[in-house]
Design goal:
Elements: E1 5-6, E2 20-21, H1 24-38, H2 41-60, E3 67-70, H3 73-81, E4 92-95, H4 101-109, E5 116-119, H5 127-133, E6 138-144, H6 156-165, E7 169-173, H7 185-188, E8 192-196, E9 208-212, H8 214-217, H9 258-273, H10 275-292, E10 310-313, H11 318-328, E11 333-335, E12 338-342, H12 349-363
Parallel strand pairs: 4-5, 4-6, 6-7, 7-8
Antiparallel strand pairs: 1-2, 3-9, 8-9, 10-12, 11-12
Helix pairs in contact: 1-2, 1-9, 2-9, 3-4, 11-12
C-alpha cells in the first residue's frame, strides 16, 4: 500500500492531511488541465461530480442521490442549518465542547435567526449525557463521530435513536473518522452527515460533502443556492428557479472540479485496497503502541472500539517529548490535550519503532 502514496518519512499527520496518492497528479493533468487546454471544459468536468457522488456513496453504503459535494465542512453545515424548517417551540442547537471549533463558529451565527446554542453537560461518549440533554426545546443535535483532540468515538447510533424519538434533527460530523474507522450514516439513522476527504481518505483539500437522508431532502429548502442547485443547471432562465430533486439542491454556485478530480483518483486507490485493510492496519498500529507505553501518558482511548485513528499523548515533560520528536524528524502536532499521532494503512513498522522509542524516552 505504501508504494501507492508519496509518504514522508515518519509521517503521523493524516488526521490533518492524508498523503498524496501517486496517481493523483496524472489524474489532475488528464481530467482538469487537459479539458481546459482543449476547450471542452464543462462537458468534461461535469462527469467529475457524478463520479465523486457515486464513489463516495459506495464508501458510505448510501445512494448517490443523497450525496452533495461541498467545498468544506463549514459550508456544508451552513447549508443544512438554513434549509431546515423552524419550529416555534424548538430553537436549541445541542452540541459538545469537544466538537471542532468551526462547528461552534457556524452555530453561533444561527442566533441571528432565533436559534440558541447549548453545550451538553457531561461526558459526550456516554449516551446518558445526551439522553438527559435532549429535551422538548432541542431542534438540532450535532454529534462528532471521532473527536479531533482526543480521538474518542461517540455512540452516534444511540444518540440518533434518542433524538429520533424526540423529533430532533441530527447532524453528524465524520471528518476525523471517515477512512479511519467504519462510517455508515444509513445504519446509524442520521438525518445528515458532513465530512471531508482531506484526512484519511487522502482526497486533498476542497473535496468535502454532505449526506442527507432521503426523507429529509424534500423538507429542506436551502437559502444558499446557485445554478448548480437547480433542477436543470443549464436551463438559464433567471426567473425560474426549481430545487434539484435530490441532495444537489445543497450544491450552490460554480464549483471547482479540481479537488474532486483528486478525490476520484484517491477513491480508485481505495477500490483496489479496500478500506477494511486500512482499518485493520490502523488498529494494529495503535494497539502495538498502547501496549508499549505507560498508560498514564495516553489520553486517547486504548480500546479499539472506542477510538479513532489518532494516538494522543500527554507526558509529564512536554518539552522533553518535543525535543525527541524533533530529533527523530517525526511529523505530528499538538493540542492542549496532548501530542497527536495518527496511524494509517501506509504507516510502516519502522516508523512505529521510531515513534515508540521517542515516546518511551520521554516517559522515563
Amino acid at each position: 500500500m505504501r508504494d501507492l502514496f508519496h509518504v514522508p518519512e515518519n509521517y503521523f499527520l493524516s488526521h490533518s492531511v492524508g498523503c498524496l496518492p501517486k496517481q493523483s497528479e496524472a489524474a489532475l493533468t488528464e481530467q482538469f488541465f487537459a479539458p481546459w487546454k482543449t476547450g471542452t471544459t464543462w462537458a468534461d468536468w461535469m462527469p467529475v461530480f457524478d463520479e465523486f457522488r457515486t464513489g463516495l456513496a459506495a464508501l458510505l453504503s448510501v445512494q448517490p442521490s443523497t450525496i452533495c459535494p461541498q467545498v468544506n465542512v463549514s459550508s456544508a453545515l451552513t447549508k443544512i442549518l438554513y434549509s431546515l424548517p423552524q419550529h416555534a417551540n424548538r430553537n436549541v442547537i445541542l452540541l459538545s465542547k469537544l466538537d471542532f471549533p468551526t462547528i461552534g463558529f457556524v452555530f453561533e451565527q444561527a442566533a441571528r435567526v432565533g436559534y440558541e446554542v447549548r453545550f451538553i453537560d457531561g461526558d459526550p461518549t456516554e449516551i446518558e449525557t445526551w439522553r438527559a440533554a435532549i429535551d422538548e426545546t432541542v431542534a438540532i443535535v450535532h454529534v462528532t463521530h471521532a473527536t479531533s483532540n482526543t480521538s474518542h468515538l461517540l455512540p452516534v447510533q444511540d444518540i440518533c435513536a434518542v433524538a429520533r424519538t424526540k423529533g430532533v434533527t441530527t447532524i453528524v460530523d465524520v471528518a476525523q473518522s471517515l477512512g479511519a474507522v467504519p462510517v455508515d450514516p444509513s445504519a446509524w439513522g442520521v438525518d445528515f452527515a458532513i465530512g471531508t476527504g482531506v484526512k484519511f481518505l487522502c482526497f486533498g483539500p476542497g473535496a468535502c460533502f454532505l449526506y442527507a437522508a432521503p426523507y429529509m431532502i424534500s423538507q429542506c429548502n436551502p437559502m444558499d443556492v446557485g445554478w448548480f442547485s437547480h433542477e436543470n443547471p443549464f436551463e438559464m432562465d433567471i426567473e425560474s428557479f426549481r430545487y434539484a430533486p435530490d441532495a444537489l439542491r445543497f450544491f450552490g454556485g460554480t464549483p471547482s472540479p479540481a479537488p474532486f478530480v483528486l478525490a476520484n483518483a484517491a477513491m480508485r486507490v481505495w477500490n483496489l485496497i479496500e478500506l477494511d485493510t486500512v482499518y485493520a492496519r490502523i488498529d494494529t498500529c495503535l494497539s502495538e503502541l498502547c501496549e508499549k507505553l505507560p498508560e498514564p501518558m495516553i489520553v486517547s482511548p486504548m480500546m479499539s472500539h472506542r477510538r479513532g485513528a489518532t494516538l494522543v499523548i500527554a507526558p509529564r515533560d512536554r518539552g522533553a517529548l518535543q525535543h525527541n520528536l524533533s530529533e527523530c524528524g517525526i511529523h505530528c502536532d499538538a493540542r492542549k490535550e496532548g501530542f497527536r499521532f495518527s496511524m494509517h494503512g501506509y504507516t510502516s513498522d519502522a516508523e512505529l519503532d521510531v515513534l515508540s522509542r521517542a515516546l518511551l524516552a520521554a516517559a522515563d
